[in-house]
Amino acid sequence: MSYTDWRAYQEATAEVFRRLGCNAQVDFRVTGARATHDVDVYATFLRSGILCTWVIECKLWKTRVPKEKVLALKSLIDDLGADRGIIVSEAGFQPGAQDAARGTNITLVTSLDEFASTALAATSEVPLTLSSSDDGEPIYQFPSRAEPHDLLLYNNVIITANWAGCSISIVNPISKTIIRTIDLDKYEVVSSQNGAREIRSHPPGSLVVADGRLFVGQVFSEVILAIDLATHAIVKRIAIPGGGDGQLAVSHDEKEVYFASNRVNQFYVIDSATYAVTAVPYPEGGRGCMSLLRHPTQPLLYIGVQRGGCINGQRYPHANSYLAIYDLSRQAYVANAQLAEVKNGRADDATPACLTHDDIHNRVYVGMFQSHRGICVLDVETGRSVQDIRFEPNSWSKPFSWVDPLSQALTSNSLLSVNRNNRELVVLDRTSLDLKKSVFLGDASNGPRAVLVWRDPPASDYLSCYLILIDMVRGR
Prior knowledge:
Layout: H1 6-19, E1 23-31, E2 36-47, E3 50-59, H2 67-80, E4 84-89, H3 95-101, E5 106-109, H4 112-118, E6 126-127, E7 129-132, E8 138-141, E9 148-154, E10 157-162, E11 167-172, E12 177-183, E13 186-190, E14 197-201, E15 204-210, E16 213-218, E17 223-228, E18 233-239, E19 246-250, E20 256-261, E21 266-271, E22 277-281, E23 287-294, E24 300-307, E25 322-327, E26 332-338, E27 342-343, E28 346-347, E29 351-358, E30 363-369, E31 375-379, E32 385-389, E33 405-410, E34 414-419, E35 424-429, E36 435-440, E37 448-453, E38 466-470
Parallel strand pairs: 3-4, 4-5
Antiparallel strand pairs: 1-2, 2-3, 6-12, 7-8, 9-10, 10-11, 11-12, 13-14, 15-16, 16-17, 17-18, 19-20, 20-21, 21-22, 23-24, 24-25, 25-26, 27-28, 29-30, 30-31, 31-32, 33-34, 34-35, 35-36, 37-38
Helix pairs in contact: 2-3
């Protein structure tokens, strides 16, 4: 949309926030602790009974906004005690401005139209549906077909990537309610059957949070999305060769986001402030990725490569999956661990599906898809195999002879694993890796997919503090 002048731009901005449930005033004069300020748009609203204040600066410029304007807004909101500052600029922002906003309560918006279509400042909460396992443990399910398949914990809420819903949900684990749902991008296709025009949505893939933004691998698209978690607006679409089908990880300081592509044989380092992208090829012959992990303190990146590995210097027919370890400071691969098993002269078709770091025992747990090895336990620095945690398939696993441990999580005393084909959550002793408990999670066509620890439970209470997300084709 084009705007006739800066006043029209201010009014359009204020109207966007009014539609979002805010009281938005234009050219508002407000007194802070040290001075009186004239604010382009001053927006207030109630959230959970608390008055929240946002200060919005509107820059209808022909040039990108510099760093100084971000610093000036930061000083202004500090003086006012405002909750958030927002700068809206159709021309964009200089790299210095993007870097200055990193780690602050300032949101940079490069399109008012896109912000208006994706932001969500107020919505009603939707309760999860209470069910129970055969063991009597409470299990909460989505009330409509969503098929959550990935999840993460952020600021005491749980963020889920919903495959069927083509959306992101934000869940309050205390009230067991969905407090926000963010719809992802849509696209147009022509039906091959009748030539009719169809509108479809891109499903979400992997998720990470960096610097107050949710990065989402948008599957079947050409981009990774950056969503501002304060406003729930899509603030950036990062073009990536091969698109958003792959895995994300984030550095401990949240300055870098990593994306390992499942379609192009390389991974990418993304600056979380400027969105600059650097490509790094996989090891020679490596193809595809379903898992990625950034070491929390060392500059090591662990890449679960699906195909192209060597076992004792020899390549076998089929997948030859392996774990590649890349040193980000040296910009070189420093080790790899072969994960495929060889039988009758051929490697299996296994894939490393998930990676979990154990800082107490210096291990990496590799949950294997289509593998009898179950969970491979590796040394964190060398990738040397320590042991395998093999699981016996139960009656639900038929016709497969493996259990597919697709997700792991740690508590202070336990290692948790969701074994999809067995429809179970298993609890293992974190030190000995002996089995402590197995809980049946109920039947579903696609089985359980992910687990995280919301808060660390007492030793005698394995499940009351875990949230299990079950990917059910029928909408559970």
